[in-house]
Design a protein that fits this description.
The chain is built from 30 helices and 13 strands. It is an alpha+beta fold. A hairpin with a 2-residue loop joins strand 4 and strand 5. The radius of gyration is 28 Å and the shape is globular. The two termini are 56 Å apart.
């Protein structure tokens, strides 16, 4: 199965081994749970259109119809493997289609025997039409698609893989069935035929459109055997480039005696040298102009940044920008066998076009987001009762939670892979509909990625005086992100002592804090790209929200309930975010010091994956693959699951702990860590500096 497949050298431990067997139930489109979900959905559809008997009948027959629909989708989407004869499996394909058709015959017989019930006749006709329409789709499809139909059991075109898409299709089928039954209800057979044919036609047309969006699949690139060249990504497309580009003027003045020790000395905001591919670059004059802000560069100053640089920049930056800051080759630069191995793994991902976005994925997700927002607007604006308004709040919360994943992808330039385009879409989605500044998110999130779980540098774990993820946060330290001293004062000591109890209430209102942080950044002295656009789009969000509360709610109490309910339910997102890092390892200062905390080791040690089945990927939105996302932030969300297999295998091979837990066990892990840290507040003493620190910690480390 895709969910938890075995791999060479795997060493299952603890609870991961206990749950591994469950995925076998979901590994193909013919799995019983998946077919049961299909039957349940269609029984609800027909019950709404034709009554309870129709719904019960469909629970038996809809499985056959869904086999036909899955076959149609397979025919239109998947090509056979290269070199295989196009007509090799035509007989098998026809047999499979006839099986689906034959499965509908008992339903037709039941309908004929129960002519007094028009609902059953409607169901039988609908199923027969679905099967016949599937045969017509096969007949009309190009011959090279026919063979793929016979292999559809490996394609997983079901609720398991395409959960959101199947939900959208089911909703569309409900609408079609209801319209057909309302329009042609006097003749249930005719209305059933119309509904069944229209349903399959809709699925086939939608699939054909998605295929046209994606275009033909790209073939894998050949293995690169030239050490002077590497695969890189340009606008999501893999290109072969020189490993290092040179500026002639800079090369003429280049030094030939640079060592890593000398690079390490240039490690401040006003004096920045970095190492990329074994060459030194002086970025001092570029720090304040960096589109991602000065903080990521300052936090990486004096280090080997080959991996973070590769994972955050497209190919043109190597060719047109980086050579302008060239200093010289580093004479003692070495790459360990392990670092070479994980860099080769990224090269393999590029070679196989894994960084290319599948546009059809975001077309489907965009329809999903629009559907959620439309439902929220409908119930909020046109609803006439408190219950309807609260339903609007629920849909709005779900929209915020789901669209945040799109904002996350777009913020990493993992959708169009063009910074300006992604920034524009990010401001439309994140600012206007979500109320959170894209610039604030990028400034904070980029730093979080390059110094993940650094006590002094990662803003995502700096939540004093309310939360402390580790006892080493106690005392006093200077936050490079907030540019101020963070101290454990009396208020912090009191609140942190109960943080394991306050965790969920804090997550329920955390979104309000993000609104505040957005405005604080935009009205600060920091250099912000598109500042006027950011302020304008946030103003639109605030205006729309205030107008909705003032004009649509019957009282201020109802408006307050609406705000609290929508924000509290959207707080699930904040639980998902904090789950990824709160209970993992922390460290002081910067990483990238040696083999133990280089890019791969640091990201794996500080991140936690959520072990979830394939059909729940929509809920987690890519955050369930936090390890892989931190390693390759520009890798499209829909390719993270396959990447997980490679990363787990490499970790197993080298004995690196790969952190992964089921969702609720991960939450419990966070609560336990917060509780453990809360207990440490009992040992904090007031120091001469006016803040609390741990006497036990000082004594154990021979401090003072």
């Amino acid at each position: 199965s895709h969910t938890r497949q075995s791999f060479p050298g795997a060493r299952p431990r603890g609870k991961l081994r206990r749950v591994r067997h469950s995925s076998s139930l979901w590994k193909s489109q013919r799995s019983l749970p998946s077919r049961t979900m299909q039957a349940a959905a269609m029984s609800a559809l027909e019950a709404a259109a034709g009554g309870v008997p129709a719904g019960l009948a469909t629970a038996v027959g809809s499985v056959a119809a869904f086999d036909g629909i899955a076959g149609a989708r397979a025919c239109l989407e998947t090509r056979p493997k290269e070199g295989r004869g196009a007509l090799a499996s035509t007989r098998e394909a026809t047999g499979a289609a006839m099986t689906a058709l034959a499965a509908c015959v008992p339903m037709a017989a039941v309908a004929l025997l129960e002519l007094a019930d028009p609902g059953l006749a409607f169901v039988a006709a609908s199923l027969l039409a679905a099967a016949v329409a599937n045969l017509l789709v096969m007949a009309a499809a190009p011959s090279d698609f026919v063979a793929a139909f016979a292999e559809r059991r490996d394609l997983e075109f079901t609720w398991n893989k395409d959960t959101i898409r199947c939900v959208l299709e089911a909703v569309a089928r409900v609408a079609i069935a209801q319209q057909a039954f309302a329009t042609l209800g006097e003749d249930p057979v005719v209305s059933g035929l119309a509904a069944g044919a229209a349903s399959v036609a809709l699925v086939a047309a939608f699939q054909a459109y998605l295929c046209s969006v994606d275009g033909p699949p790209r073939a894998d690139h050949p293995v690169n055997e030239d050490p002077a060249k590497v695969w890189r990504e340009d606008k999501g497309v893999t290109v072969l480039q020189d490993r290092v580009y040179f500026n002639e003027k800079r090369v003429a003045a280049a030094r030939k005696d640079i060592t890593m020790a000398e690079v390490a000395k240039h490690n401040t905001r006003t004096d920045v040298w970095v190492c990329v591919e074994g060459h030194a670059y002086d970025l001092t004059k570029y720090v304040e102009l960096h589109p991602g802000g000065w903080l990521p560069i300052a936090n990486l100053a004096g280090r080997d940044v080959t991996d973070p640089f590769a994972n955050y920049h497209p190919a043109p930056v190597y060719r047109s920008l980086l050579p302008n800051f060239y200093v010289g080759k580093i004479i003692d630069y070495k790459v360990s066998p392990f670092v070479k191995e994980h860099r080769d793994m990224r090269q393999d991902l590029l070679r196989r076009n894994q960084f290319e976005t599948k546009r059809s994925f975001y077309v489907s997700m965009s329809i999903w987001y629009v559907s959620l927002l439309s439902a929220a607007v409908y119930f909020t604006v046109w609803g006439s009762s408190v219950a309807e308004h609260m339903a609007g709040a629920v849909f709005l919360a779900l929209f915020w939670q789901q669209s945040a994943f799109f904002g996350h992808d777009i913020g990493h330039n993992a959708v169009t892979h063009v910074r300006k385009s992604d920034s524009w879409w990010g401001m439309v989605m994140g600012n206007i509909t979500g109320g959170i500044s894209l610039s604030w998110w990028k400034r904070s999130h980029n730093v979080h990625h390059v110094v993940c779980n650094s006590i002094e540098n990662d803003p995502d774990i700096q939540h004093m005086p309310i939360l402390a993820v580790d006892k080493e946060i106690f005392g006093s330290f200077f936050s490079t992100y907030h540019q101020r001293q963070i101290v454990t004062d009396a208020a912090a000591r009191f609140l942190v002592a109960y943080q394991h109890i306050l965790y969920f209430p804090v997550m329920a209102v955390a979104r309000f804090n993000l609104y505040i942080q957005s405005y604080l950044l935009l009205f600060s002295g920091e250099r912000i790209e598109y500042k006027a656009t950011e302020v304008g789009t946030l103003a639109i969000f605030s205006g729309l929200l205030v107008a909705a509360m003032y004009n649509c709610m019957s009282s201020w109490q109802e408006g307050l309930a609406y705000l609290l309910l929508s924000h509290a339910l959207a707080g699930v997102l904040h639980v998902q975010i904090t789950l990824s890092h709160f209970a993992e390892q922390t460290y002081h200062g910067q990483a990238y010091n040696d083999e133990t905390d280089e890019w791969f080791h640091m990201q794996v040690k500080t991140s936690l994956n959520v072990d979830c089945p394939l059909y729940m990927d929509w809920f987690h939105g890519g955050l369930q693959f936090q390890v892989e996302h931190h390693l390759y932030p520009r890798l499209p969300r829909h390719n993270l699951r396959d990447c997980r297999t490679l990363v787990r295998a490499l970790c197993a091979k080298h004995g690196i702990t790969y952190n992964e837990l089921p969702f609720f066990e991960g939450i419990q892990r966070v609560i336990d860590k917060l509780h453990l840290t809360a207990k440490e507040t009992r040992y904090l003493k007031l120091t001469d500096g006016g803040f609390y620190d741990s006497a036990i910690f000082h004594g154990a480390n021979l401090l003072g």
